[in-house]
Amino acid sequence: MFHWHGETWSLPPGASLIASSPACAHQVFAIGPHLGLQFHVEMTEPYIRKWCMGGRREIESSDSPAVQSVDAILAQMPTRLPALHAVANAVYATWIKGLKP
After folding, report:
1. What is the chain's alpha carbon radius of gyration, rounded to the nearest angstrom?
2. pLDDT of residue 4
3. Which of 22, 25, 32, 72 could make an SS bond with 68 (beta carbons 3.0 to 4.6 A apart)?
């Protein structure tokens, strides 16, 4: 997943925690038919490059072990984006099945 956050949230009442990570206790939750995500599945190379350039100071000033350098993010794009896009396609396909016409 592509993470870009310094804030987090608490689970809403009645929500089920689906995923967490050492850096973020609440990555994914479900409540009824709704899904809450604290990461980005929609990222593309142009988005990542734009975010890295616009957020360079935020990245460089972070003391979180979960925050990679801009150079590391950009270097990993070719190998990580195909897997991210596969996850995004699965998430979107599952979500679309639940939509009512």
Report:
1. 15
2. 74
3. 72
